[in-house]
Amino acid sequence: METELYKGKAVADKIKEDLRKRIAVLKEKNLQPKLCIIRVGANEDDLSYERGIRKNCDNLGIEAETLELPMDISQEDLEAALIGANQDPKIHGIMIFRPLPKHLDEGKISRLIDPEKDIDAMNPENLSRLFLGINKGFVPCTPQAVIELLDFYGFDFEGANVAILGRSLVVGKPLAMLFLEKNSTVTICHSRTKNTQEITKKADLVVAALGKAKMIDESYFTEDSIVVDVGINVDEDGKLCGDVDRENVLGKVKALTPVPGGIGSVTSTLLMEHIVRACENTIK
Fold it and tell me: DSSP secondary-structure letter at 176?
């Protein structure tokens, strides 16, 4: 059998097309969507991530500035910088690169970021809005990307049996809430789950979000399985790969999101959508 690949580019392109229209409307009202990136130090991974974000901003006409702070910055000075961004009316979205150096209290910083500018859903206030079913806050981009991609490819959420592998606050738990809002039935599997393969084989959809390279093979699926691979890992050859062993699974499942080329591009585009929405919210 042939496995259908659920690629992310078409989904991201559709979102970008909509964003360009929304940004044009904002600019007619003399509003310029603006992102403030707060980066402590100059870690190469952070710099690479920042370049990608800035490129997306440039392509869409979103202004971006980076507040680069020294590695040895004090908690008080970091808080002051964040409060300044919170209070700046020209800044609509704030993104703080994590993890922060160990001498800084990341939890306190998370709670300090303005929920209305918290485009990366770092503040617990935004997660609580999601769990309470209040559709006002920002949802973490990766779980939202999973829903957007499945929606694009016509997945029937209503009553679907969904198995999520992973229970992190970044993906697993918020994604479960999003599926519940769509009236799906959700099982979260984790390291202590018994008979995980029996659960995933009975599911209509399996989302792999464990963070372990190529851990999931064909034994977790049937030929009717739809598989969304959220993992971003590096394999033994230094190449990007997902949590699913793609070569092992291809031709043995109904559909699969590739890594790279799947969820990642949708996730980065939704970050742009959050900036635009935060700007729009200042009008409301």
Answer: H
CA dist., res. 145 & res. 262, Å (int)? 10
Read off the tokens for 205. 């959809």
Helices (H), the chain: 9-28, 44-60, 75-87, 106-112, 124-131, 141-152, 172-181, 196-202, 246-249, 263-283
How far is C-alpha 254 from the chain's CA centre? 24
Each residue's pLDDT, cut to its tens digit, for the chain (284 residues) gives 899 999 999 999 999 999 999 999 999 999 999 999 999 999 998 999 999 999 999 999 999 999 999 999 999 999 999 999 999 999 999 999 999 999 999 999 999 999 999 999 999 999 899 888 877 789 999 999 999 999 999 999 999 999 999 999 899 999 999 999 999 999 999 999 999 999 999 999 999 999 999 999 999 999 999 999 999 998 888 899 999 999 999 999 999 999 999 999 999 999 999 999 999 999 97
Q: Please give the full DSSP string across 208-237, using - where no structure is assigned.
A: E-S--TT-B-GGG--TT-EEEE---EE-TT
Taking the C-alpha atoms of residue 32 and residue 206, their distance in angstroms, rounded to an integer, is 40
Omega of the bond leading into 124 within 30 degrees of 0 (cis):
no
Helix, strand, or coil here: 188? strand
Give CA–CA dist 137/119, Å, rounded. 9
